[in-house]
């Protein structure tokens, strides 16, 4: 599963890379075409690992939640023994959705249409009068809740695949597992999803949000109002460490299409880089957490966890942004020009209440539909999507920034996007 | 208006008539529709909060333990207005067209932080030839300050399953 298409020349229908000339172009039809979307469903979303949810969302045995993943409605639950499972939320009888609540705790599920019932291992458990169904009726699993072909987790992040033959999750994640480690290791007690979900849609192609989620180039321009806010909050431009950001920033190819940026940004991090407006308590919290991290994971990893900001895409559609807060975000195309987005805040289990408040406050100042930055991203993505109406006359997006740079790429180059597009081309181009 | 007006504000928690509160809410809606955001901000006390929780979150839930869409104290609310006044607030530049309807206004009681007034609302936002509709319940805690009604807290409980197709809460609800 390693990326076969190492940087070289590639002249595809949608992706054209000329390494010698230092140019990388993506045809805008990739964002507008029904044919491309159908092909993506078949060659990408039905083949790879897709994010389902976090272990902390099902705290107790028999807990369940429902979620839309890769175009299907799923039940994510734990049985009496506490084992995690994933089922298609589709009645094997006539197809109605069996579970209709967003979450709960149940030892069995019953379809409201005709009353077919299942235990929470998905096993058919309906009592009928003798003679109603033939003896061979319940022997081949065909009347059980259909299980999702594959379910695996890494550091409490659960993924499913609709492809029974997909490589093991750990192998698929490649270097992205190391970045998930830097998230999962932020607390000695594990991490949890905070209650409250951001649920929204964007009138744009899903790949635009992939690009945007780790696009270091757009930040200063698109989010000038956020940085003006930050400067004002911190008490003036001389109080903001933009120099560190300029010097410490790169992008890392994590294999299999995954990539992350890594930088030292000027905002505060709940774990653990305080800013002066957090006062003595903020500084003390930082020192306490950095000391604990250093003890547990060593000074080098402690610095990576506490003092570096990362925007990662796990191919194809899981974004983990570990910045002024941690957001876990996934999205799915329901049309070439429409995606559904779900995003959560991830935080240490047992986090100090003041640190938790700081974290959520930080989250909202930048991230999400009401933040000072994300709405402008949505505007940019939708604006690009409208622009692609001219695809026949203006067909190419340029992703060449930093192509010929000597040494490691900068976070505000476009290397991370090229990583995505090479993997996309590998799966999508050709018959 | 200064933060230390708090005590005075508390002392003058006193219900007006529903018609007077309706006039106040209509005026607030008009200021927002007309993008007179600086005047709108003057309706708030300097110890006020403006909150929009995520879906299905009850009135008692606080933004220090649950992820909201918006949880502004007065300082951040000032920043929100400052931001929306700029052409570089791209989501709202050029400004969207909005129409706010306020209905079912009720006085729910007198509480420590003010008179609790609730209404249902319908807010239409039109931009790029899409018109999106926000619906829900707005809760206000109102006080009297120098003879004027002021907002001590505004909490917007969205009455939708999700922000589909809105994608954002870039306007002030």
The largest chain-to-chain contact, stated as pair and per-chain residue counts, equals: A-B, 42 and 38 residues
Tell me the CATH superfamily of the largest domain in chain A.
Naphthalene 1,2-dioxygenase Alpha Subunit, Chain A, domain 1
Question: Got a strand count of chain B?
Answer: 6
Question: What is the CA-CA span between the terminal residues of chain B?
Answer: 23 Å
Query: Hey, roughly how much beta strand do the residues of chain B contain?
Result: 35-45%
Q: According to CATH, what is the class of chain B?
A: Alpha Beta
Number of helical regions of chain B? 4
What's the architecture of the largest domain in chain A in CATH terms?
Alpha-Beta Complex
Strand content of chain A: 25-35%
Tell me, briefly, the overall form of chain A. Answer: globular
Structure summary:
Chain A has 431 residues and is of the alpha+beta class. Chain A contains 13 helices and 21 strands. Chain A is globular, with a radius of gyration of 23 Å.
Describe the protein.
The complex is a heterodimer of chains A (431) and B (173). Chain A has 431 residues and is of the alpha+beta class. Chain A folds into two domains: 50-165, Rieske [2Fe-2S] iron-sulphur domain (Rieske Iron-sulfur Protein); 174-428, Naphthalene 1,2-dioxygenase Alpha Subunit, Chain A, domain 1 (Alpha-Beta Complex). Chain A has helices at residues 29-32, 34-45, 169-173, 176-184, 206-213, 219-222, 224-234, 242-247, 279-297, 299-307, 353-366, 374-387, 415-428; strands spanning 10-11, 15-18, 23-27, 50-54, 63-69, 72-78, 84-88, 103-105, 108-110, 117-119, 150-154, 157-161, 191-193, 198-202, 249-255, 258-263, 309-314, 318-322, 326-335, 338-348, 396-398. In chain A, the strands form five sheets. In chain A, strands 13, 14, 15, 16, 17, 18, 19 and 20 form an eight-stranded antiparallel β-sheet that branches. A four-stranded antiparallel β-sheet of chain A has the order 1-2-3-21. In chain A, strand 1 and strand 2 form a beta hairpin. The radius of gyration of chain A is 23 Å and the shape is globular. Chain A starts with 9 loop residues before the first strand and ends with a helix. With 173 residues, chain B is an alpha+beta fold. Chain B has one domain: Nuclear Transport Factor 2, Chain: A (Roll), CATH 3.10.450.50. In chain B, 22% of the residues lie in helices and 42% in strands. A six-stranded mixed β-sheet of chain B has the order 2-1-6-5-4-3. In chain B, a hairpin with a 2-residue loop joins strand 4 (114-127) and strand 5. The longest helix of chain B has 16 residues, at 18-33. Chain B is globular, with a radius of gyration of 16 Å. The mean pLDDT of chain B is 93. The interface between A and B is large, with 42 and 38 residues.
């Amino acid at each position: 599963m390693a990326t076969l298409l190492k940087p070289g020349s590639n002249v595809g229908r949608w992706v054209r890379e000329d390494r010698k000339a230092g140019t990388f172009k993506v045809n805008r039809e990739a964002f507008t075409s029904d044919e491309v979307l159908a092909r993506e469903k078949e060659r990408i979303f039905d083949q790879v690992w897709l994010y389902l949810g976090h272990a902390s969302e099902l705290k107790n045995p028999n807990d369940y939640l429902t979620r839309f993943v890769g175009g299907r409605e799923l039940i994510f639950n734990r049985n009496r023994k506490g084992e995690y499972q994933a089922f298609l939320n589709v009645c094997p009888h006539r197809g109605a959705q069996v579970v209709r609540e967003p979450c709960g705790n149940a030892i069995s599920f019953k379809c409201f249409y005709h009353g077919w019932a299942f235990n929470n291992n998905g096993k058919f458990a309906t009592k009928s009068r003798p003679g109603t169904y033939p003896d061979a009726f319940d022997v081949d699993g065909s009347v059980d809740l259909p299980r999702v072909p594959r379910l695996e987790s890494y550091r409490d992040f659960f993924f499913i695949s609709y492809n029974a033959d997909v490589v093991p999750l750990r192998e698929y994640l490649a270097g992205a597992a190391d970045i998930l480690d830097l998230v999962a290791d932020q607390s000695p007690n594990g991490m949890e999803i905070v209650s409250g979900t951001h649920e929204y849609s964007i009138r744009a192609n899903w790949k635009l949000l992939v690009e945007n989620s780790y696009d270091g180039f757009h930040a200063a321009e698109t989010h000038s109002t956020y940085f003006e806010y930050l400067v004002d909050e911190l008490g003036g431009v001389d109080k903001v460490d933009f120099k560190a950001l300029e010097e410490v920033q790169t992008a890392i190819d994590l294999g299999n299409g995954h990539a992350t940026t890594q930088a030292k940004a000027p905002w505060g991090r709940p774990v653990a880089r305080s800013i002066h407006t957090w006062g003595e308590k903020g500084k003390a919290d930082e020192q306490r957490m950095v000391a604990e991290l250093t003890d547990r994971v060593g000074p080098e990893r402690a610095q990576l966890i506490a003092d570096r900001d990362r925007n990662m895409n796990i191919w194809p559609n899981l974004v983990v942004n570990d910045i002024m807060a941690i957001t876990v975000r996934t999205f799915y195309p329901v049309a070439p020009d429409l995606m559904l987005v779900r995003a959560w805040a991830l935080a240490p289990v047992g986090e100090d209440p003041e640190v938790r408040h700081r974290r959520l406050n930080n989250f909202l100042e930048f991230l999400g539909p009401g933040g000072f930055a994300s709405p402008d991203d949505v505007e940019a993505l939708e604006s690009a999507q409208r622009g692609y109406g001219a695809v026949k006359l203006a067909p190419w997006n340029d992703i060449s920034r930093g192509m010929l740079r000597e040494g490691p790429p900068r976070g505000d180059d476009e290397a991370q996007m090229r990583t995505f597009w090479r993997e996309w081309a590998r799966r999508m181009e050709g018959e | 208006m200064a933060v230390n007006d708090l005590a005075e504000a508390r002392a003058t928690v006193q219900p007006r008539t529903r018609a007077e509160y309706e006039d106040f809410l209509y005026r607030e809606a008009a200021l927002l529709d007309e993008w007179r955001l600086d005047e709108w901000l003057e309706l708030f006390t300097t110890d006020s909060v403006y909150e929009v929780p995520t879906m299905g979150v009850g009135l008692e839930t606080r933004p220090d333990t649950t992820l909201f869409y918006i949880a502004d104290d007065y300082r951040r609310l000032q920043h929100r207005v400052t931001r929306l006044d700029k052409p570089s607030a791209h989501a709202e530049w050029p400004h969207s067209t909005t129409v706010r309807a306020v209905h079912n206004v009720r006085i729910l009681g007198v509480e420590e932080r003010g008179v609790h007034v609730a209404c249902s609302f319908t807010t239409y936002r039109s931009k790029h030839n899409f018109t999106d509709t926000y619906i829900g319940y707005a809760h206000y805690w109102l006080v009297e300050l120098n003879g004027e009604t002021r907002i001590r807290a505004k909490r917007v409980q969205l009455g939708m399953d999700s922000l589909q197709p809105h994608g954002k809460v870039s306007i002030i609800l």
